[in-house]
Amino acid sequence: MLDLHFEGMSQRTISASTGHSRNTVASVIQTAKSRGIQELNDTMTNSWLNDFLFPEKQAVEKGYYPVDWEKVHKELQKKNVTLKLLHYEYATEARLGKKVPYAYRTFTEKYGNYAKKYKTTMPIRRKPGEIMEVDWAGSTLTLQDRATGEKIPVYVFIATLPYSQYSYVEGFIDMKSPSWLTAHIHALEYFGGVPETMVPDNLKTGVTKPLRGEPILQEAYRELADYYHTVIVPSRVRKPKDKASVEGTVGYISRQVIAALRNYPFFHLEDLNHHIFEKLEEIYTTAFQKHPGSRREVFEEEEKPYLRSLPRTRYKLTEWKTAKVQPNYHIQVDRMYYSVLYEYVRE
């Protein structure tokens, strides 16, 4: 039925060719469409298709209590929920109904098959609202000085939520600490919430010493995390897989945004960022090619509810410096002198 359908034949013709009723043909085609099957390959045998398209029917025929795999998938997205727990609940429900449940091993295998073919992001490696990965893109954009014609590099900051692959992108004149912290604030406000963890690279603007056991964070960066009630866990040195989502997004943004804007003459940073946001809007509202919905829909429906609420007021940037106490028991900050206890001279 599906072979003929994908070749463009009408349901009436398929019904006549296969000897099945038009209702049966329509049911098979509609179910295949809802499960994301757009073409057949050699692994999709009749037996496999039967199990995949109608798992409840197969379970009943074999005497097992049927499983709602879509419900299992949605429950698995919640914090602290595991397949072990879901199987226990399923088995308990089956026994109360005097039905035979699948063994745990069979349960996990069948869910793996379901997730592999139906959800492109499965198996789940990230929970919604769990992590925000951040980094600077390797490629840059440019501003042009109207007076001299000089080209000024613009560094592109990217923050990505791995579950939904929803990202925030903004250009900055430099990669110094104030720009780094401001980018985080803008990203959290763009997402409308705060993830549990932020995963940066071991940049000097964020990490003072990338120690293996417990990296030492820049004080201002640590203060920002405390203010937003989140945790910073820097990726390990030379371990790009620790923040694979933002690494992948860097390449995607470089192709879809940076490359697309490379020949535009920008004279103001605000104008450049306005065009970046327009490109992002275009990317995230465009429907997926292989399954229904868009990145924005996945973010709004599945991830945003799990983000923590933003504080009522925006974090105010701070700057930390180290100063040596002079013989006159004063320290100098921005050409201003401040006295300290004389015991700290030369410290």
UniProtKB/TrEMBL annotation:
Gene3D superfamilies membership: Ribonuclease H-like superfamily/Ribonuclease H
Highest taxon in the source lineage? Bacteria
Cite the InterPro entries for this sequence: Integrase_cat-core, RNaseH-like_sf, RNaseH_sf
> Integrase catalytic domain location, by residue?
124-313
Q: Which PANTHER family match?
A: TRANSPOSASE RV3428C-RELATED
Protein name as catalogued: IS21 family transposase
